[in-house]
Design a protein that fits this description.
By secondary structure, the chain is an alpha/beta fold. The protein has 15 helices and nine strands. The radius of gyration is 28 Å and the shape is globular.
């Protein structure tokens, strides 16, 4: 109504000027008439442009993307970059609507919703994916990668793409690997300098058999639970600790419930930009390509953001009173979890291929 009113006012103004022009000299009348016409045309053009913009926004296909993290987390950085790229490259035809803080459910629930087609997209930590594709569990094996560069080489290469492809049998489309990062142990009880120190602690782990097996091999009382539940359990002291990358420890202010951090880097955790496979297949081919390329670019952008932030975040963790063990006896951890590799012979082929790719 406001845009129509603007146009009507402009036309009336033009008409009034034309009427007034009829009372003046012929030369003034001609000039004034031309000016009035220009004013009316300009107003009409402006209104048409506004209407076109409104129609474009109204007609955009909205894609809902969920995460379980807060707005300070790297997943939010990734989601915002992805949304920006998709909107730009589709000329506004597709808009990504981000729902953080677990508003659309925990990670497993969101994956199930994508399967059923009731949720469009999510950025999901690697842990729950083994419940939808057993092959994905190989990425959760302890000490699989020595550094970020090794992880990127595998994930962005043939093996990583092949693993994403296994999700399609579960009606999920894996677009790209963003980053959760190397995971570290926090607890409220004592500093941990070697594998023996962690024995007996009650730690939250992701809902994933490989993670559970890894911490049971360390004689930990491993408690699988959703992250939202873990935060409450940490505050109430019903669990002693958890394991997560530095950016999570920082963004969730775990110093409020945890005293000690051990940088053992026991596992590299991805964050997969995931979509309902049925929805993906329904998109035009050129839009599918835009989604895939935008996801990869957003993932790489988020990885760099994590790297840029990590040193400052670690320092702030220390400044808030957390005691950080930066050089634990990693060899003792490696030795203690070797049984996990023996327990998963189905991953032997993938593990060999990963090791060969890193030579």
């Amino acid at each position: 109504m406001k845009k129509s009113a603007k146009l009507l006012s402009a036309v009336m103004a033009g008409a009034m000027v034309l009427s007034m022009a009829g009372c003046g000299s012929s030369s003034n009348s001609t000039e004034t008439t031309a000016a009035a016409a220009e004013t009316t045309a300009a107003a009409a053009d402006s209104s048409a442009a506004e209407s076109k913009e409104a129609t474009s926004n109204t007609d955009a296909t909205v894609i809902k993307l969920g995460t379980t993290v807060n707005e300070q987390d790297s997943f939010q950085v990734c989601a915002e970059k992805f949304a920006e790229l998709v909107k730009e490259r589709t000329n506004g035809a597709y808009e990504i609507e981000i729902h953080p803080n677990g508003a659309l459910g925990d990670e497993r629930t969101m994956l199930e919703s994508m399967q059923m087609g009731t949720l469009d997209m999510g950025i999901i930590t690697s842990g729950p994916f083994v419940n939808f594709s057993s092959a994905m569990g190989v990425l959760d094996m302890p000490f699989l990668f020595a550094n970020n560069e090794e992880a990127y080489k595998v994930l962005d290469g043939e093996i990583g793409k092949e693993l994403l492809g296994t999700l399609e049998d579960a009606d999920l489309k894996g677009l790209a690997y963003a980053e959760r990062g190397f995971r570290n142990i926090t607890n409220s009880k004592k500093p941990i300098t070697n594998a023996a120190d962690v024995a007996g602690l009650k730690l939250r782990v992701m809902e994933n058999d490989v993670y559970t097996a890894t911490f049971k091999a360390l004689d930990v009382n491993a408690v699988p639970m959703a992250w939202s539940d873990a935060l409450t359990a940490l505050q109430q002291g019903t669990i002693d600790g958890e394991e997560n990358p530095i950016n999570v420890i920082y963004s969730y202010k775990l110093w409020e419930s945890q005293k000690y951090v051990t940088l053992d880097r026991h596992s590299y955790s991805t964050a997969i930009i995931t979509m309902s496979n049925d929805l993906f297949k329904s998109l035009p081919e050129d839009v599918q390509k835009i989604f895939e390329e935008s996801a990869q670019e957003a993932a790489e952008y988020e990885r760099q953001w994590v790297a840029d932030q990590e040193a400052d975040q670690l320092q702030e963790i220390k400044d808030h009173g957390m005691e950080v063990v930066e050089n634990p006896d990693v060899d003792s951890f490696r030795a203690a979890v070797q049984s996990v590799y023996d327990a998963y012979p189905d991953y032997a082929d993938y593990i060999k291929r990963i090791q060969d790719a890193l030579k």
